[in-house]
Amino acid sequence: MAVSCKTFLTLLLLSLLASAAHGQLSTRFYDRTCPKLRGIVRSVMAEAVFRDRRMGASILRLFFHDCFVNGCDASVLLDDTRTFTGEKNSNGNRNSLRGFEVIDAIKARVEAACNATVSCADILALAARDGVVLLGGPTWLVPLGRRDARTASIFAANANLPLASSSLSDLISLFARKGLDARDLTALSGAHTVGQARCVNFRPHIYGDRNIDPGFAALRRLTCPAFGGDGNLAPLDLQTPVSFDNRYYQNLVARRGLLHSDQELFNGGSQDSLVRLYSSSTSAFFNDFVAAMVKMGNISPLTGWPGEIRLNCRKVN
Description:
Layout: H1 5-21, H2 37-51, H3 54-67, H4 100-113, H5 120-134, H6 154-160, H7 168-177, H8 182-188, E1 196-198, H9 199-208, H10 214-221, E2 233-235, H11 247-253, H12 260-263, H13 272-280, H14 282-296
Helix pairs in contact: 2-4, 2-5, 3-5, 8-14, 9-10, 11-13, 13-14
């Protein structure tokens, strides 16, 4: 029996919603409802990274910090309101998160193409992938179908985000609570092959730690004095700070990790052999990074009827 186009689209939409209601994401979630989505996200991200290559790293960090606090629900994008203090001013986010205006720009173009259809959470997931690709990293199919949170919590952010001072055992424990194992931790930490960190976050490492190359510590002290200069920036990867490659791991082997938490991955512990593997094999790193990104993107997503599709990523409808 022939099925009308309208009936087919209705059945397809119901099928997608049913899948999402059971917590299942799909790489084809918007194929019918917003077919131009991927092209729009890619175009805006290309413009943003062309203007500022660091932006690829910033959007990737936004996605990490979103997923680690109550799941991948775009709660990190919410501004504070009279009823809640959000995640933007938490210890791990204050003065360091950036790229919100890029997500705003993507959302505006997506709304013009398919109104009230695509969540900010899914836009952020796609933008993070495209940022990696634009900096020379691997690509992957992004599972979609998330909905947006209606609230955010500074307390949850303070409790769930890793700190620059974290030990390896602390990091493994934190990631395990999110369903990510030590291999995921080590692969995802490779995101620090791009981007920069503030002096206040790496000062304890370059002045107080022993597991650091003396020459590297001296170099970093030139722009990060023992007192003052908290906001001064340094590249997380000294060699290729705006290229997504495996140099981060080579730095760790040479004891030139910028953050204490970075160097903990190569400090006579359980992840040393994996760091050595990634330092010598870009393909091994890329393969594990992609797998870990997909896994992280599936941390407690809002699907089905909970949440909403925000029209403005900074505030609830």
